[in-house]
Amino acid sequence: MSAARDVTSRLRQTVWNGSVPLEIRLHKGDCRTYDTSDPYLIQFPRLSYLGLLIHKLHGFFESSLIFPEVSPADAWLEYEGVPLRWHYPLGLLYDLYSGAEPAYPEDASGKQEQQTGNDEPKPLPWRLTVHFSDYPMDQLVKLDTEGKHLHDLYIHSVKEADYLRTGTGKTVMFLSKEDSTQLWESVKQHNFSLFNSINQKLLNPQGANLRHLPVRLYLPHAASPDATPAVKAEQISNPRDADTADKPKKEEKGIPPGSLRVVQSLITPSLTSRQPQTIGTALNQIIPTLFPSRRSPLLAQAVLHGAVLPLGANVEELIRATSYLDGWLHIAVVMMA
Amino acid sequence: MRRLTTFPRLTEAEFKTACTAFHNRFLQHQDSQQEWTSVDPLQSFNTRYLRITRPLQPNARDTPKSDDAEQESEVEESEDEEALPYTPAPAPEALINYDIILSPTYCVPTLYIHILDPLHRFPPTLDTLYQHLVPSPYASQTRDVGVLGGITITDHPISNKPVFFIHPCRTAEVMEASASGRDLEPEAYLMLWIGAMGKCVGLDVPPALALASSKTENKRWGETRMILVVN
After folding, report:
1. Where in this chain does the record put each Autophagy protein ATG5 UblA domain (chain A) (predicted)?
2. Per-residue pLDDT tens listing for chain B (231 residues)
3. Rounded distance between C-alpha atoms, residue A285 and residue A156, angstroms
């Protein structure tokens, strides 16, 4: 038992320390010099939020800006035409958009389960572009200089995760003012000891097992265009038939680059038969068209923190050791070649 | 009558029933009301939801359309004599979409609001929210809650674009209090929910719909209590 706890806490620490080197350049439309300015370089935690960087970015690029008086809240980041959502942690953005090949688990014989192919891994650092004009209001929540929007998005996500775990959301609601402040401070400072004491309270609600597990799936390129009027309910007699509409569609006109479909569903810690919920059983339940098998990935894979998740992994153990700062497992679903 | 099985929450099937019934109610009585432009049941992948649309300026529909057209063509004639007589430039009308989506976490309907405007005059910001959406009597009580207020901005669960929303973490409690022990049918639940959640963002069931009795529901809805929901 203590050995298991040991593994959990070591994994928790490893995930906490995960980071991606970033090279952020000023978009030439905002740059007063003809040549591009120096890039802003930073080793940034995978678990953290890029929105916490706006003041540093503004300060760094201020002297190069055509309009230096713009607000730090006008900043937005982009990778190859995709505006990066402030409330997605960096690790999720990187797993979704960087094109980097995820790490594969080793099978029992020590061989890699999957050949990674001949593709050269994309070189690090991850090269992003910062803009200070033409804010994509229809795609990104606009931040403010005091970080209130980011805090609000974060705390709603924390509450929702808590509601799933406890069935009441009371753990978060009854956190003391000090604890709530400490939680957000720990995120801003990326301070593990500040974070962990609160997180342990959230993960271990008093006298209760976890009801549901906060898991959210992100399916790139599958986002639908504007919703279509509902098919007459009578036409869908069998709800399973509706699943055929679940297959990712070819990219259609009008879908901006980087579109995602975000999917979540109620996931219990164990199946009725006292069998623990695994990534395979959960994915098979939520998106059976992409995960027709509970044991082996046939069409798509689940990527978390840069690694392909083994379908046999226990979801509750993953939540305890590897969830993001808001308590969720944010899993990128990647189609297999 | 069958009581809702998970009250104060709603199952997916009950939510679907409620949306269908409410849509039918609108189709039956839409001509006797001016407030709403449309009520549409929508589906994206496996998510079904309901969209209520009304003009941003509530008075815009009060004037009969023919009058509008006449006035505009007169204006055009006086300004430009070469203008074709029957091509009045339509004033771009902004519409509010209220999307009612069942939260997979809280198992209650959740309200997402965005403004459709060809001129992009109303971006999803708190300024837009308090200048154009929240009726002034509700502004202060809405604003002074939580980090940013009781209504904030998040990604729409279907379109994934930033929209206004009312966080649903207290909705179940509010429904419990609002029902005050009554046995509710799914549609009655939905109308009670609109009454409780919608006022602070300008969504009210038009009296013509609220008072009309449907086949299944003969209760009076004028008494629907308004409770502002905050988190």
Report:
1. 15-132
2. 457 999 999 999 999 999 999 999 999 999 999 999 999 999 988 789 999 999 997 544 444 444 444 444 444 445 556 655 665 566 678 999 999 999 999 999 999 999 999 888 999 999 999 999 999 888 887 877 777 778 899 999 999 999 999 988 889 989 999 998 888 999 999 999 999 999 999 999 999 998 876 544 444 443 344 444 433
3. 26
Residue A199 token pair: 């997180």
Pairing of strands A215-220, A329-335: parallel
CA dihedral A263, A267, A272, A277 (to 10 degrees): 100
Rounded Cα gap, residues A130 and A133, in angstroms: 9
Task: Name the pTM for this structure.
Answer: 0.84
Sheet with strand A329-335: strands edge to edge: A260-264, A215-220, A329-335, A300-304, A307-308
Q: Where are the domains of chain A?
A: 16-138, 150-203, 215-229+240-335
Domain A150-203 indexed as CATH 1.10.246.190 = yes
Interface-testing mutation among B100, B114, B147, B148, with chain A (most A C-beta atoms within 10 A): B147
How far apart (Å, rounded) are the C-alpha atoms in residues B4 and B16?
Answer: 13
Contact check, Cβ <8 Å, B154/A156: yes
Write out residues 57-116 of B within 8 Å (CB-CB) of A: 104-106
DSSP bridge partners of A192: none
| CA distance to B190, B193, B227, per residue, from B197 (Å) | 10, 6, 7
